């Protein structure tokens, strides 16, 4: 249950400060994604934000999108993750 608790963090998305509230488990997955890509969590989130705006004009539920991306990354990740 420790990983189920929500945590709010201030992040910068393409230069804009915002607050993102995700469960601990998703923050941990984002840290793994960032580490695998040699960047910060904010850089990963900025990339997602930029891509969703370029491809779809934005998204109503960014937190939900981030959760889906985390699960998709785990599903596609080689056993080395």
UniProtKB/TrEMBL annotation:
Residues 6-74 form the Ribbon-helix-helix domain. It comes from the Bacteria. Pfam families: RHH_4 (PF13467). This is Ribbon-helix-helix domain-containing protein.
């Amino acid at each position: 249950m420790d990983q189920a608790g929500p945590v709010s963090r201030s992040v910068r998305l393409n230069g804009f400060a915002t607050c993102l509230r995700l469960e601990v488990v998703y923050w941990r997955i984002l840290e793994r994604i960032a580490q695998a890509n040699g960047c910060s969590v904010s850089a990963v989130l900025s990339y997602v934000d930029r891509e969703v705006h370029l491809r779809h004009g934005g998204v109503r539920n960014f937190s939900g999108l981030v959760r889906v991306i985390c699960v998709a990354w785990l599903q596609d990740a080689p056993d080395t993750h």
